[in-house]
Task: inverse folding
């Protein structure tokens, strides 16, 4: 029987294998299992429907945020068009499900694959563009896709959108909050495990090399352009998958939610969560969704109070103000995001009582 | 023919407006390589400050105009000092997201104070500015825009070419470490360029407000329209911004007039993607050659 590892007080790794392990200590493994048990055994049964709705939204956005983190955090290509790919996924899933009557377990990954293809096409400018210019090119792809979603009426139904009804996956009704909870979090857990393992393969190592110095990466023999396109495809796959989930969950989709503001929220998620960190993307999704919900709750509360007092002025714009302020403060005071705070907390526990 | 000429005139005026709004943007990019997503909000801030000073505080137009410019100059200073300076040396994405956050803050604040309605300035332009040649009429505002635009271009040309601060700014844009080692106060240059950019933005905001009425949503949308304009001309070229503005303006009005009005909104971005594929640094941008 091997020796259990609990609290190493420093970095005692001796082999590459140890460096590549996902769980550094057995406590990590224990916590992961406990977390999964709480996630699937306790949370769904104690939450109200509204709380479940929020948690499901977090799950959907977390999948998309992981995708964006692969592209932006690991490969270093800034994308301001992630919401558009999210929308493409939602529309392809809806079209596959309503026009071709495909079952969900086919249309869900198929939507991801279609989006991956489209993402690769819109990633083509990265052949010649970098940094700012690529960022603007992705912004352009956001506007172009948005336009297509609104104006290709034969396929997308224009501004009225598409209604997806009666979808179920292996007998679980996707419109029910509770059963959707299990589906979305199973997908999230599986995709997280896949992504965490991908970071140990040559693909994401090549992505990281490209992020850190693309010329050096080229010199080391990494086909930079091919990997950049691959990164765009992978990231769009996640976005499309999450978008498909979103379509099945909300039942009716219109082009409206997939606007630039959502793209900005995705980028905010990975920045607040932590660039180049998988748990960071999930923290970011949790943070942004809760912030949005909290702000809309507060504004509604204040509006009700005002209207009863006879003074009616709109407080809704302040929501945007607070959102912006949060992003700004996070970037100035903790540019590495929640993942860094989490790491500091963990290492404090690990090194206690000698945390210096 | 009449239709064509009217569209041509409209396109040129629109293009000039875009060029004018792009100037401040290029200014910031040129000295500090910050891609400013809050540019539309800076325009809106200037326009609303002018509104407050001219109609609510009842100052004479000229006084209000100069007070607005001074106010925005300080706003630019403050923004740079408190928000951008801590980020010197950070990654590009953090800086971009910071300006996005700033944009949301400004927009929220302006919407909270002024609401989403369209406000109008009092009519203060003299009638003789309106020119009519045969069948085409050029409204007074466009003539004023044209004059202001030319004036500011000349001023900036002289500023960048001859004044010491202008030369410092160009040196920082060209090579930051070299400028630092030669004793240029880089942080002051950044602050100054933000201040000047906010000033230029305020002026463009006022001109836009005179033409279309001022509305927070519309002005911040113009801030996004600036991207195709500056990319087309090259991000760090002022002359390029003007030409880019004219091309995008003409393209928009001609598409709107001859093809469809909804396609008009998207055509700048389609052109943008193609330009980027063919000439990644724009028409007049500085080409950065990289060799492996």
Result:
């Amino acid at each position: 029987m091997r020796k259990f590892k609990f609290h190493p007080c420093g970095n005692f790794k001796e082999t590459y294998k140890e460096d590549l392990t996902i769980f550094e200590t057995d406590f990590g493994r224990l916590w992961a299992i406990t977390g999964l048990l709480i996630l699937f055994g306790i949370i769904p049964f104690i939450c109200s429907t509204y709380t479940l709705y929020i948690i499901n939204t977090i799950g959907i956005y977390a999948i998309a945020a992981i995708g964006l983190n692969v592209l932006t955090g690991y490969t270093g290509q800034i994308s301001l068009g992630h919401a558009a790919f999210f929308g493409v996924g939602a529309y392809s899933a809806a079209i596959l499900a309503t026009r071709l009557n495909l079952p969900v377990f086919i249309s869900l990954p198929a939507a991801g694959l279609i989006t991956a293809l489209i993402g690769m096409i819109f990633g083509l400018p990265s052949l010649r563009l970098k940094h700012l210019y690529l960022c603007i090119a992705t912004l352009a792809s956001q506007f172009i896709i948005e336009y297509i979603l609104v104006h290709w009426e034969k396929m997308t139904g224009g501004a009225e959108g598409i209604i997806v009804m009666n979808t179920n996956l292996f007998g679980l009704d996707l419109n029910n909050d509770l059963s959707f909870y299990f589906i979305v979090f199973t997908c999230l857990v599986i995709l997280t495990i896949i992504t965490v393992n991908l970071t140990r393969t040559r693909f994401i190592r090549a992505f990281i090399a490209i992020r850190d110095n693309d010329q050096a990466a080229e010199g080391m023999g990494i086909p930079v352009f091919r990997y950049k396109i691959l990164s765009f495809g992978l990231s769009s796959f996640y976005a499309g998958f999450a978008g498909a989930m979103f379509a099945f969950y909300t039942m009716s989709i219109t082009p409206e939610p997939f606007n630039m503001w959502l793209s900005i929220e995705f980028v905010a998620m990975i920045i607040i969560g932590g660039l180049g960190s998988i748990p960071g993307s999930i923290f970011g999704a949790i943070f942004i969704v809760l912030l949005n919900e909290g702000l809309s709750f507060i504004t509604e509360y204040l509006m009700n109070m005002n209207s009863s007092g006879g003074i009616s002025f709109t407080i809704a714009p302040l929501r945007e103000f607070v959102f912006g302020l949060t992003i700004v403060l996070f970037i100035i005071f903790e540019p590495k995001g929640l993942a860094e705070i989490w790491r500091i907390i963990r290492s404090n526990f690990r090194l206690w009582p000698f945390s210096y | 023919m009449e239709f064509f000429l009217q569209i041509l005139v409209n396109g040129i005026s629109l293009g000039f407006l875009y060029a004018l709004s792009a100037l401040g943007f290029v200014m910031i990019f040129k000295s500090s390589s910050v891609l400013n997503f809050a540019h539309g909000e800076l325009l809106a801030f200037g326009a609303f400050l002018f509104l407050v000073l001219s109609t609510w505080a009842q100052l004479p137009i000229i006084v209000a105009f100069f007070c607005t410019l001074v106010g925005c100059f300080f706003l630019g200073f403050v923004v740079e000092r408190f928000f951008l300076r801590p980020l010197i040396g950070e990654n590009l994405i953090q800086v971009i997201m910071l300006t996005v956050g700033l944009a949301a803050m400004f927009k929220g604040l302006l919407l909270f104070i002024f609401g989403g309605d369209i406000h109008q300035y009092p009519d203060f332009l003299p009638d003789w500015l309106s020119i009519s040649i045969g069948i085409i009429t050029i409204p007074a505002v466009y003539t004023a825009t044209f004059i202001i635009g030319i004036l500011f271009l000349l001023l900036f040309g002289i500023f960048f070419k001859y004044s010491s601060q202008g030369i410092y700014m160009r040196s920082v844009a060209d090579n930051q470490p070299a400028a630092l080692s030669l004793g240029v106060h880089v942080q002051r240059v950044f602050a100054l360029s933000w201040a000047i950019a906010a000033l230029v933005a305020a002026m463009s905001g006022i001109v836009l407000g005179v033409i279309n009425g001022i509305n927070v949503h519309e002005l911040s949308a113009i801030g996004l329209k600036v991207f195709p304009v500056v990319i087309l001309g090259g991000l760090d070229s002022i002359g390029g911004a003007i030409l880019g503005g004219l091309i995008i303006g003409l393209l928009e009005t001609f598409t709107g007039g001859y093809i469809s009005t909804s396609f008009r909104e998207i055509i700048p971005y389609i052109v943008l993607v193609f330009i980027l594929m063919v000439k990644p640094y724009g028409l007049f941008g500085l080409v950065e050659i990289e060799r492996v």
In short: Chain A has one domain: 49-351.
